[in-house]
Structures are given as structure tokens and as C-alpha cells.
Amino acid sequence: MSELDLSQFEKKVVLRNITEADIDQILDMQKVCFPGMEPWKKSHLKSHIDIFPEGQFCVEVDGKIIGSCSSLIVNFNEYDDHHTWDDITDEGYITNHNPDGFNLYGIEVMVHPDYRGMKIGKRLYEARRELAAEMNLKSIIIGGRIPNYHKYKHEMTPRQYVEEVEAQNIYDPVLTFQMMNGFRVMRINRDYLPDDKQSATFATLMEWNNIEYHAKSKRHFKTSYPVRITVIQYMMKQIESFEEFARQVEYYVDVAYDFGSDFAVFPEIFTTQLMSFLEEKVPSQAVRKLSEFTEQYIELFTSLAVRYNVNIVGGSHFVEEDDHIYNIAYLFRRDGTIEKQYKIHVTPNERKWWGIQPGDTVKVFDTDCGRIAIQICYDIEFPELARYAVDQGANIIFVPFCTDDRQGYLRVRYCAQARAVENQVYTVIAGTVGNLTQVENMDIQYAQSGIFTPSDFEFARDGIVGECPPNIETVVVGDVDLEILQRQRKTGTVRHLHDRRKDLFELKFKNLESETPEDQ
Questions:
Q1: Mind telling me the catalytic residues?
Q2: In this structure, which CATH number among 3.30.565.10, 2.60.40.60, 3.30.540.10, 3.40.630.30 belongs to the domain 11-209?
């Protein structure tokens, strides 16, 4: 008898994080698992993966998805015990995910009916427990369905039903399973899932405690999360060399350091100051010569960010890539890493004089002070970009700008303040002042840089943390509080992010690099 080929008997079970390639299979499985209930949209699952990929798990058998679960992190003390599923998940999009929260909140577990009995659900719950332990979270909280309650609702209350299940006099496929996995009932919530007819809309709020949890002073009893920002209103004047430019830049980074800032923010295309000592006068050729300084510019700002321990939004700079010129803003983190954001909307002036090409991708960046976005000047005047960034978790939008007259400046300012209000986000604008009389198309500048907040009682009266005097070389330093921002998004006088009518309208974002439409 020849040696058996054991591979023919294998049934490979893989537990892993969900990817975008899994979305269609999960949606199909959900229809089978929860008939009659409103399923996820692609945009929900895409949002989960974008915002908290570590918390989304699936089980795969021979290439087929047979189970999945979704979760987010919250500080549960900020929520009402009587919350609904929509409250705790921001209507399924988890944009309220709080990386600094204490609790992992499970929002769905499902196993394909054909594969029940294989302990797939137990594997998913174990993955959550391991994640909670790895991230040092205090507990896992779930809102559990009680799908057999509809059989008993005319003879007992939800509390009585739960007590009977706890006493093992009644079997409930969800509640019994959760208790067997170490969860205890905290309370019963009414109207948790309005379309859950089997549970008569009730749900059990349950918790599993991480006995290895160690409180960290960074998060324990946190009442504020201040982030200090220094905005540089930069003077454009003639210089003789890149070294002179570097000395000016370092001076302002040093100022930011002296104030204990987390971010230093420079204006849009302030590196055009280098054109003042270049001999090329034709604008379209001058920008290509300017782009030759890109490596020096990146080396300078990377070094400054690390040496002065401050995250730097390095304004923006004209960069040549594949024979095209782009307007690119760079984020230089204080840990030495670098990110970049292309300007998406190019002004008529940029096209006419410099031949600038638009970028195609809107990014949101992780920093040690939360998630941020950069939108260069004209981009802040298109509200869809800010909404997309906030949906991806941005708490601060930095806006380097360069405007030559007051009308242009006011367009940037008014739109930045509007974005702060409508998205419940902080916005920061940093502009150039002065004159470059030797440089074609960069002769005059107008700016009044500032830091803006939403408009509500928690913030400064006029929604302004601070602003520079107009047209003077100076800085403004201010603190924005991310903890106040999170609380205001949940309990503010108005709650734009929560109250928008997703049943009537939604944002569709098309990533032109992949030519794939994505619902957001």
C-alpha cells in the first residue's frame, strides 16, 4: 500500500483579519444568517477595515468565509447604559472608534448555518479575547440578541426570560453561547435593534472582564487630551541660498519646541522662496528647478522633526514625478517616518503658470496625537474631502495655504471654519505673508493664520483657538482637546456626524489610482 496523501483529508481552517476582498462573501453570508434583518452595506465593512482592521475577524475553510465578527474600541463610560446599536456603532460605520478607549465592543458575530457545530463562534470569541489582552483593554462588551424570546414574549418579561436562560431552563442560541464563553449580563436594553423581531427588539448588555488588565496612567481617569499646535505665518522674502532657508525653518521649529508643541505647521508652497536666488525667470521652468531641492527639503525636515521631537506639517512643495509637477504636502513625524498628501484640486493659476497636475488620493494619517488629514489650500473649499477624512477618523485637518489677496484668503478661512462646524473637527490654516518681488507669479501674499473649532459651549466663544495678526511674520500657538471633541460629537447641542441623513444621501469616493468606485 502506497503512502497516503494526507492533504486530501485536510480541511484548512484559518482565522484571520478581514480584508476588502472578503466583503462580498460576508454580505452573502449575512443574508443567510440573519434573514429579515437589514444587512451591512459595503460601505459599512469598508469603514470597519479602514478604521479598526485589527478588530475585524473571519474564519475561512478551504477558501470560503464561514464566520465573521466585527468590533470597535470605546470608552464605555461615555455612553448611556440604554444605548442602541446605532448609538454604539455610529449607525454601523464605527467612526466613533476610540483607540484610547477602555473597552472592546463587539457589534456582530455570525456563523454560516452549514458550519454550525464546528466551534467557529468560539474561535471568533477567543480572537476577541486575545485582542483585548494584547491591547490591554479592560473588558469586552456586547449587546447580545435573544432570538428565542419571541416564543415566550406573551408569557414572560425579557428579564424573566433571561433568568430562565441563566438557570438553563431555556436554551437560547445566542445568550446561552455567550454565557458559556464567560460573559455576564449587565442589563437588558429595549429597542437595541429595531428590526430584530425574534428578540422583540430587546438585547442583553453583557461583559467579559480582562483579569490581566493593568490601568495605564495615560488613559486612567482621562478628562482631557490636549494637543498643542504651533502655526507658522511665514514671511516670503529674498534669500541667497538653501542654507539661509534652512536656518529660517529651523528657527521656527525651535520656537515650536520651546512651546512644547506636538505639531508645527508651515504654509503651502513656501519653498518657492528658493526661487528668489534661482536664475530661471520662466515660471514653468522655475518650478522644475525648484523641484531639484526636494531631497534636501525632505532631509532637512526629517532631521528637524526628530531632533526637536515635534511632528511637522512641512507646508507643501512642488515635486517632479514622471515628468509631471505636483503640489505635495509632507507630514514629518517625530519618530522619523514620512507621509505625503497630493493637492487634489488645482487652481486655474497653478495650471496656467506652473502646469501643476492634481493628485488622486485622499489620505488620513496616524500620529501619536490621533488621526489627522492635510488638505492643501483650495482642497478645503470642497466639503466632500473633509467629510471623507473625518469618516476615516481624522480629528484635525491641517490646511497649508498661499493666497495673494484678501478674497482668496477669506475663501480658505470661511471654508475651514465651515468644515470645523459641519464635521465636528478641528481645522488649522497656515499661510504665507510678505513679497517675492523677484519671482514671477509669487509677488504678493495675504494671510491670517489660525486654529478653529466646532461651535458649541465646550469650545472658544467664536470657534477660534487663536489667530495671527494679518500680514505679519509671526506664529500662533494653541491647544486643541481631543477628549472634548469626542464628547462633543456624542453629546453636543447639535451632532452633525450623528444626525446626517444617510438614508437620503451618502458620499461616494472614487480612488482614481485603482479606478474602483467605493461607497463611503
A1: 268, 343, 377
A2: 3.40.630.30
